[in-house]
Amino acid sequence: MLNGILINLFERDLSKLEEEIAAYETAAGIWRVPPGITNSAGNLCLHLCGNLQNYIGAILGKTGYVRNRELEFSARNVPTEDLLVLISSTRRVILTVIAGLTAEDLEKTYPEKVFSSAMSTGHFLVHLSTHLNYHLGQINYHRRLTQS
């Protein structure tokens, strides 16, 4: 049951991420960092994909993905098309891995310690979904702020 809920949430929010990035009027707008804003939408997009590809793809799905978290926040001017391809490939990996998890897998302790205490895989996947949604809201605000 939790699998289905997680699949719906990640599908919805990764599709919305794709829509938000595609909605920028210019590629330069994706990378603009107005005063008072810490990260561009492009960097948040790279961060979200790297985060999900690492914690779900590499750790749970054994995809071999190697994360470069520093690059997620330092890269600039990645073409919009490349960001959209990255989101699409991330969505495929995430949905495939989650669909393959059993109820027992979701109850097991997540294989890596991420925070100060251990948590179930299901709990951590819910956390990753809310993390995606948090940054998705930032991207939506960034887009509206920079295009007004």
Tell me what you see in this structure:
The protein has one domain (2-146): Four Helix Bundle (Hemerythrin (Met), subunit A) (Up-down Bundle), CATH 1.20.120. Helix content is 68%, strand content 0%. The chain contains seven helices and no strands. It has helices at 2-22, 27-31, 41-58, 69-74, 80-99, 103-107, 121-146. The protein starts with a helix and ends with a helix.
CATH superfamily: dinb family like domain
Tell me about the largest β-sheet: none
Structural class: mainly alpha
Gyration radius, in Å: 16 Å
With helices defined by DSSP (H or I, 4 residues minimum), what is the helix count?
A: 7
Helix-strand sequence: HHHHHHH
Sum up the overall morphology in one term. elongated
Instruction: Write down the overall mean pLDDT.
Output: 96
**Uncertain spans:** none
Task: Give the key terms.
single chain; 148 residues; mainly alpha
Sequence-ordered SSE layout with sheet pairings:
Elements: H1 2-22, H2 27-31, H3 41-58, H4 69-74, H5 80-99, H6 103-107, H7 121-146
Short description:
By secondary structure, the protein is an all-alpha fold. It has helices at residues 2-22, 27-31, 41-58, 69-74, 80-99, 103-107, 121-146. The mean pLDDT is 96.
